[in-house]
């Protein structure tokens, strides 16, 4: 499923950045069907229907308003508005207050909040702050997603700044990057929340491990650092070996079910998500919604040869 076993992954991830491919693929009706598997819909109401069902099944959620790499500040404003509206919709769920992990979260991408525009770091910080303040009011957590490696330093600076005011703000570290084990050490302190994932972008060998074996081994090392640390590890993976490793490390480091969580994506391994909840663990499902599904969808296709075959067939018969 990672680079070595999927030789087309780099090409698909390159296509994920192509406007021409986006136009072709978005027109295909069959592709839409496959998109629906990973994205519950374009409207906030679609996301909330999915959220309601997930919460009823005992899962936590993190909703992402799809968007990345914007080119005008106006698009960032629209993204902020979408999150404020979503956070007020969270209130309709009427969940009881809890001392443990917050069941509701939003995931934000700084590139959708202006990070790459001129003066963008400040703009993204201001926009993220607005979302964090609304999330605090709604009793929800905020997670800052990780994007490609050219953004990592800027993202970590913004997260550090946000955490001064909103200490529960979380971020994501990607095990495929060489730097991540050191970042885990630095960010495993008390109160920190870190989502550990393998990493979904096309990255050069100078900064990232390229084979599944190396990425998995790095993930295991990073996981140990986070589990032995003082923060709240969020284990984002569908990989059965890594989930088993997380459970063993949690037992070894004396973590109870409120002291870490497993995270998976909407539409992937739903049965496994339910099984983990039935066992008494916390599972948070990442729910993306909105019109800008192309980049997200292509990264899911790149991860899995079975999805890829289905997808190519749908293009040929288009
Ligand atoms: P893999 O080795 O890809 O897969 C292991 C097994 O899981 C497969 O054998 C298969 O059984 C199943 N599986 C995996 N993917 C699929 C699929 N698409 N369809 C069906 N079955 C599948 N990446 C970032 O770069 N930044 C982020 O901020 C980020 N946030 C994430 C948040 C969550 C909650 C999750 C779960 C992932 C996130 N990712 C993010 C993506 C992540 O980096 C990986 O690209 C993705 O999770 C695939 O890696 P894996 O650990 O599931 O293992």
From TrEMBL:
It is an enzyme of class 1 (oxidoreductase). Residues 48-310 form the Proline dehydrogenase domain. PANTHER family: PROLINE DEHYDROGENASE 1, MITOCHONDRIAL (PTHR13914:SF0), PROLINE OXIDASE (PTHR13914). Its EC number is 1.5.5.2. Keywords: FAD, Flavoprotein, Nucleotide-binding, Oxidoreductase, Proline metabolism. Pathway: Amino-acid degradation; L-proline degradation into L-glutamate; L-glutamate from L-proline: step 1/2. Its cofactor is FAD. Transmembrane segments: none annotated. It comes from Microlunatus ginsengisoli. InterPro entries: FAD-linked_oxidoreductase-like, PRODH_bac_arc, Proline_DH_dom, Proline_oxidase. The keyword Oxidoreductase applies. It catalyses: L-proline + a quinone = (S)-1-pyrroline-5-carboxylate + a quinol + H(+). This is proline dehydrogenase.
